[in-house]
Queue: 4 jobs
Job 1
Amino acid sequence: MALAVAQVTSVASAQEPKTNAAVETKVAMCIGCHGIVGYQATFPEIYKVPMISGQGEKYIIEALTAYKKGERKHPSMRGIAESLSEKDMADVAAYYANKSSKKASAEQAKPSDEVQALLTKGNCTSCHGANFSKPINEAYPKIAGQHPDYLFVAL
């Protein structure tokens, strides 16, 4: 019996990114919004919360820093970012960068005509790369598979 438990634990831990309790505590506040599939924010407009799993570390750190400085506007995110040290931001960023994103649903994979027009007009592939998933700079987000309503608000 003990061997079976050890094997199951070994298999489960091999599939999950390695984290420690301190990092788990730091990301616990993120999971309440970013960990719920299809969760919607209500400020300043109603839209789905952006997917952050699989984003680059540098992008996540820069986004958190911008919230902390007030350069990006969202009261909940600003409050969270203000409580984070640079080390905390780096830990959170590493956790999400190494966490694979869930496969995009058919709704997420195809942007609305409105969003597609903005993506084309803005020539978004020039920065966000082929299929919007290979940014030319690590500080740029991957936008492939992102919620169309979030992209519309962000753009």
Note: The beta strands are 40-41, 47-48.
Job 2
Amino acid sequence: MKNPILVLCAMVISLSLHAQSEETIDSTGLPGDQFNLEGALSLFQKAESPESFEKLLNEQNNQVNNLDLNGDGETDYIRIESRKDGDIHILILQVPVNENENQDVAVIAMEKTGKEEATLQIIGDEALYGEDMIVEPAEVEVENGMDKQRGGPDRIVRKTAQIIVNVWTWPSVRFVYGTAYRPWISPWGWRNYPGWWKPWRPLGWSVWKPARIRYHSPTIRVVHKHRLHKAHSFYKPIRMHSTTVRTRHAGAHANYKIRKTKTTITGPKGRSVSRTKTTVKRSRRG
């Protein structure tokens, strides 16, 4: 007869290992896992200005920021710095890592495309996300069509097309394109934070992962293409990166690489289709 105490211990160990596996299985190990780009875009959509957006990002209850880039056991304060060049606006989301270094977390890029038209993307910084982490507002157009089948009845199929969203009606977008607007540069920095803000201990992945899901929405999508080339070019020379962050997370970057290979697949009717295959390399822990 099996010892009930040994059986219980085995069950506890098994559950613990399963929990650890669940905790890391869909975590890249990169610091970007701890900042929700979809959540940031959702908050920006309802913010009244870059200043109010900064406050929303740093409110614990909104569960967008869980970063601790310098490893001091406390969440980081996200400051906003905006820049403009004609009809191009960018909002840089930045963390003061120490008294000498700042690290960009992401940048919101905006371009005006018409009298009352503007497009927008938020791009996660490579130091935190690796490559190709771009989020944008989404809209899907669905159309019914007929599919001709050989030797059988026609069938109705639903065809979808992704639409580039006009964000001109968003309050913050209208605000930054106003004639009286002057680019907002946060007055806060290392060890100089607003009185209402108190850092908290970052959540573990098993708790943080479910918190991220609240911002999953069909009106927000992850893409791998820069649409706003002028804004992206404007931002690149002023991007800020921290040696401390790069050194601290060098191991995570070594274990996470994205490789794209373009392959051509020939169908039964001789039609060739090009597809992009993305391979993700993760550490042994997931």
Note: The chain has a mean pLDDT of 82.
Job 3
Amino acid sequence: MPVSIRDSIGFFLQLFPCGILCYLPFQKESMRMDNRRIYTVVAAYVGLQALLFGGIVQRCYASGMELQLLTPLADGYMTFAIVPLVILFFWMVHEQVVKKLLILYIVIFYAATQFWVVNLISPLIEFQSDPYGGAVVYSVEDVILYASTILLLLPIVLLLFIRPLREFMEDADTSTIAREFWFATVTTAGTILMLVYCASVRSNYEFPYFRVSAPLCLMLVIFQCFIYWLLFRESVRRRVDADNQKALEIQEIQSQKIAKEIEQARRMRHDMRHHLAVLYDLVDQNRLDAARNYLNELIGTVSRPENVIYCQNVTVNALLQYYISQAHEENIACRVHVVCDETTISPADLTVAFGNTLDNAIQACRKVPEDRWLMVRV
């Protein structure tokens, strides 16, 4: 295999999976274009950079450049190629900056882990002698190991992390991930530095050094993966707990209003005899206008908005009773049209989503000095 093609393949295998992993945790609604186009753009860009890299390094080989000079040149070119990918990632994804940075940290951690594994195993095997005396960027062993680690690590990443990451991106907001962001930043940076250091000094130590460092680094990688999993799970759990707490508070308010209505009904039954006696006296005295006014006043006191049945869905009906009653108390005109039966959505989720929507609408109406109105269509 020509050396330039080998270096191009190694460059592509090292960079392309990282470019794809950046986008996998996000839903298509967060993208400026569909996933196929994004992956095509990333593949085309990385492929072009890989071909250019292979040609440049081939000229360096031909000129007799030593490995001490060739390695910094290759690392600099890799950095130069990564910067446009990072810019494309931040432009392509419509999400909060902290979320994108967190995903970027995880992808860098994956790249550092792969780099450490390849540099750990590569000195132990030898498939083919290099015509340049070992002074190469990607040996045959490196190319084979990068391809093998992709087949090994990517399924693990997709299986264990992509789904929790997607749930985290959907449920978490800036306020709930601040602690996770900074903790992940510190732990990721420490782990990456340790892995890169252990992989970079392989030529300065004998195999017993790796026999000691390899288990320690492996434990560090596993521990860092556990930290990611724990952070994402706990962040989502806290958000769900907060939503459930809000749902319980709304249900508690609704229960208090129901209790209040029951108490009002009990008092009305107690006072009904008095009201009937007054009406009887007014009719007996032929004071029909006074009786009519008394009835209108009595009807106004017993006909309250929260008694209205808006729909058959218990949760939606309770939320509408609560918030429409609140809107009427603040002189907000309401028009409500609801057709809603029972749904597959859990009452807790429905309470949070629909309750937040109504609450935001009423808060917006409070900022309007006059002609305030609210229209609900379900």
Note: The longest strand covers residues 333-337.
Job 4
Amino acid sequence: MAMLGTSPLAAALVSRVVRGSTLDGIVAPQPKKWREVSGRQRFKERHLPDVALITHEGKKVSFYEDLVKDKMVLINFMYAKCEGVCPGVTSNLLRVQKALGDRVGKDIFMYSITLKPEQDTPVVLRKYAEAYKVRKGWTFLTGTADNIELLRRKLGFTDPDPELDADKTNHIGNVRYGNEPLQLWGACPGLSNASFIAESLLWLDWPKNKKVSGKGVGE
């Protein structure tokens, strides 16, 4: 060690090794550069793809950047000409919208995504929204079949039985709700009690615990 400390040649060789240069077939190990990604970013990459969609008003939007980022949201899948669970869920979500009051369209947003984009054009979805008298803050969405299928799978609206999963008439009538900034998410049947759905969503707004229909959340 004393010799290395006093030898200019030895010092130069050590310097070469530290920089990662090859010396007699030996390469000094380099520090590993781990990818620095936040939990929020990892969740986005796994479950919230920023695919292109079109609203029932004909506006082009990006799912994550325009619809979900920094918001509290409630999401379900449906299609206009549905003889199954869709009409009941849509009617129930109208009650949810009413229970959430004027927060819908401000810091809470509702999204219904069609499972049949080949049929449900923006015009069809606009007429559907008008028929149900949907108010501000609730948007119906369509897009390419590939983008919607990716969203459906990433958001977890799938059936473990592949045969049932492929049949859109048997689609899951659940709703998924979340607070994107806090990375808090949950889900429940779309036909659950409307007050329960609203309160479940607002529980994710902790510690605010806003009121729903005159009752404090958690009371």
Note: Residues 52 and 62 are 5 Å apart (CA to CA).
